[in-house]
Write a structure and sequence with these properties.
The protein is an all-alpha fold. The protein folds into two domains: about 15-135, no CATH class; about 150-194. The chain contains ten helices and no strands. Helix 4 packs across helix 6 (about 100-110). The longest helix is centred in the C-terminal third of the chain and has 28 residues, at about 120-150. The chain is elongated. The relative contact order is 0.06. The mean pLDDT is about 80. Keywords: Plasmid.
Length: about 190
Amino acid sequence: MPKKLSVPEIRVTSSEQQGLFAQAADPITPLKEIDMNGATLMELEDIVKAAHQSFQSHLGDALQAGLIAGKALLTAKQQFTYNRQTGGFRGWLERIEVSKSTAYRYIELATNEPIVSQAGTLSEAMERLAQHRAEQRALKAGEEQVEVKKRRVTLKLSNERDQKLESIAKSRGGDVSALIKEIVEQWLANEQDS
């Protein structure tokens, strides 16, 4: 005698069924709604593992998975102090089988979310991060060049002239350095005009 197929007693509407399929297709959705600040270390471990697996298997949006993993890693990192026996945060990463370089890539995504959130793909986000790093280096190099251009000058003045400078600076409510700077700037401006 052939077996009868059992029919579930509770029926699901088509919209509920679509929602279940969408949730099953996108494992990142439930992770987006978790409050990571109140999560325990075990919960953060589960979040990182799930986001990391989704990232590796390309089941979900890789950029979103990387951002979520980064946020969870940042929160988890705050809970660690270095311990020689367990290795602290890095030891924890080894235990959950996430490489240090991958973890710090996730963290970089999360700490630069305003820059990468406008990207459509993970590779575009990484390009934006590389461009941002290059701009920051250029800014820093520009600041260093400004420092190089500053000059220190030692003036050897007679006591009489030194006292005269001090008295003029005092009458103007400043110091000798500011007065000399003002005099040099006025002289340079006059030289440019002529």
